[in-house]
């Protein structure tokens, strides 16, 4: 075969592999006011991802282990009413308009002070306020290999300035789930969207994530006060239990006598990713040694919040009755740093009219024997 023939063959193989997942849509339930909630299933040979319009949430990710046994690797429910009853966990949702915390629910923009809800212990603002993007029904539209979710958040929604239009596109390509975000506004505002999926690569019901190994591509993290607000420092991870530059079992140091871990009751911190902001780079890799499942997370965002489900307390349960208890899942929320509007030295979360903010995060599921 000629070089050109080989090139054409490889290209067509790559395109076939990226032919896009099959997409189907079904009804998932109705909101108390009668608004219909839909669920989309994106299916490739290796992955089946379910995403619903309430909160633009990932409801399930089914993928095989090293022996070919398929399991759902994300925490969630099988009924809309269970999602509506749970205002605490943010399972699978897009959090916004500002993911993670804003100190004292207050920030200044263009010289004006804005107040947003202090829905985190009455002290700070968390995940966009009392009624964040996780509690809205988004508009779903089928796109090749996936679904695009759209939400228009009105000027003044939860105290944030500007009408914000957010598009979050979920597509499946072979073993990869890709999330593309884009946001625009009609007034100066701040925005920090992320996806808040809880992963347990052993499968829902398999135990805690403390035996899983994680690698985080970061030399530094953002230490916090006791309310989990960054102090502003970018501290080196070297020599601390925050150093995941080499694959390390999560439970190995989680109970270490180390102030940041004690303040958060485990890992619940933002790591400063190595590599250029705006370019797709490795954020983290998780390996469940028992099932052999591996998840690789890449992002264009500058940070990732690694959260070990410290606030899960067993109140909420899976469809099969398994209690979602402490450390039964982990989150890798790719994002700008918490409380950026109050830290001019952090990468900016400001958005102006005429600009569109884009970001991409990918989750790739493979296995390792
Ligand atoms: C994020 C936060 C945590 C917690 C969870 C939701 O991960 O950093 O502190 O609020 O969301 O319970």
Question: Can you give a write-up of this model?
Answer:
Helix content is 7%, strand content 38%. The chain has a single domain (3-367), classed as Beta-galactosidase, Chain A, domain 5, CATH 2.70.98. The protein is mainly beta and 369 residues long. Mean pLDDT is 95; it is low at 10-16. The longest helix is centred in the N-terminal third of the chain and has 15 residues, at 3-17.
What's the rounded overall pLDDT mean? Answer: 95
Question: What is the highest CATH level, the class?
Answer: Mainly Beta
Low-pLDDT windows of residues:
10-16
Bound molecules: alpha-D-galactopyranose
Query: Between the first and last Cα atoms, what is the distance in angstroms?
Result: 35 Å
CATH topology term: Beta-galactosidase, Chain A, domain 5
For the CA atoms, what is the radius of gyration? 20 Å
Provide a quick synopsis of the model.
With 369 residues, this protein is mainly beta.
Question: Layout of helices and strands, plus pairs?
Answer:
Blueprint: H1 3-17, E1 22-30, E2 36-43, E3 48-52, E4 57-64, E5 70-72, H2 80-85, E6 94-95, E7 101-102, E8 106-109, E9 112-115, E10 125-126, E11 139-143, E12 146-153, E13 164-173, E14 176-185, E15 189-190, E16 194-195, E17 213-216, E18 218-222, E19 235-236, E20 248-249, H3 259-264, E21 268-273, E22 281-287, E23 293-299, E24 303-307, E25 331-335, E26 350-351, E27 357-367
Antiparallel strand pairs: 1-2, 2-3, 3-4, 4-5, 6-16, 7-10, 8-9, 11-12, 12-13, 13-14, 14-27, 15-26, 17-20, 17-22, 18-19, 18-21, 21-24, 22-23, 23-27, 24-25
The protein binds alpha-D-galactopyranose.
